[in-house]
Amino acid sequence: RRDYPYWDDFVAPHVDYLYAFLVVGISKLRVGGRFGFITTEYWLHASGARPLRAYISKRCQVSRIIVFRNLRLFPDAPGQHSMIVIGERIADQNELSSAQILRPRVSIYDGENVTESERAELVDGLRRGARLPGSNLRSFKSSTSPQDLGGDSWADVLLSNAERQKKQRLLSMKQVPLKVSKGVETTINSLKK
Q1: Which of 50, 71, 78, 153 could form a disulfide with 45 if both were Cys (CB 3.0 to 4.6 A apart)?
Q2: pLDDT-based confidence at 10, cuts 50/70/90?
Q3: How far apart, in Å, are the Cα atoms of 49 and each of 61, 128, 153?
């Protein structure tokens, strides 16, 4: 970063090497150039990825997100929730009219890992953006666009209209007040004579 101050714009708590990879990949594209990245899912909402999300939302239109969750793409990377994000480089978000801002097509697999024989049909359904009844695969047009969210969490991009409306209803309801009378009791598991 000392030699290339450009990277200071992407410094945040818990920065991941992945962020630099995505920034470099996108920066190499011409306007109209398409990208497809296989990444992990967490940067959609991680606080340290705020600069990355802001960068992408200003320079790209995300057209497709495929979330694999427990479906292992890479057997050697357990615990990684993989996803594919596909989009196009744009000149500048400010040049887009509201009619041109895309809401990406989202496909999410919420089931467990599958056998090899089930995998081909499931991956094909994810690719096509299909709904496969009984397969824990759902596909829908996102309720919002990454351009609308900027650097804020993109978790809502993974919500359908119905899910987002439910979230808004829950947030608008009166919240139950919580009164804490004590802090953490550190001695609860200790032994006394």
Answers
A1: 153
A2: low
A3: 18, 28, 9
pLDDT digits (tens, 9 = 90+) for 101-151: 789 999 998 888 777 778 888 888 888 888 777 778 889 999 899 988 999
For the chain, the helix, strand and coil percentages under 3-state DSSP, each to the nearest 5: 35, 20, 45
pTM over 0.90: no
E strand or H helix that includes residue 138:
strand 137-141
Strands of 28-104 (E only): list them. Answer: 34-40, 60-69, 82-89
Give me the helix-helix angle, 50-59 and 17-27, nearest 10°.
Answer: 10
Rg of the chain over CA atoms, in angstroms?
20
Please state, in angstroms and as integers, the Cα–Cα distance from residue 152 to each residue in 26, 54, 120, 148, 169, following that order.
19, 8, 35, 9, 20
pLDDT band at 171 (very low <50, low <70, confident <90, very high): confident
Sort 179 into a burial class: Cβ within 10 Å, 0-12 / 13-18 / 19+: exposed
- State the amino acid at position 41 in one-letter form: E
* CB neighbours of residue 10 within 10 Å: 19
- CA 23, CA 26: separation in Å to the nearest integer? 5
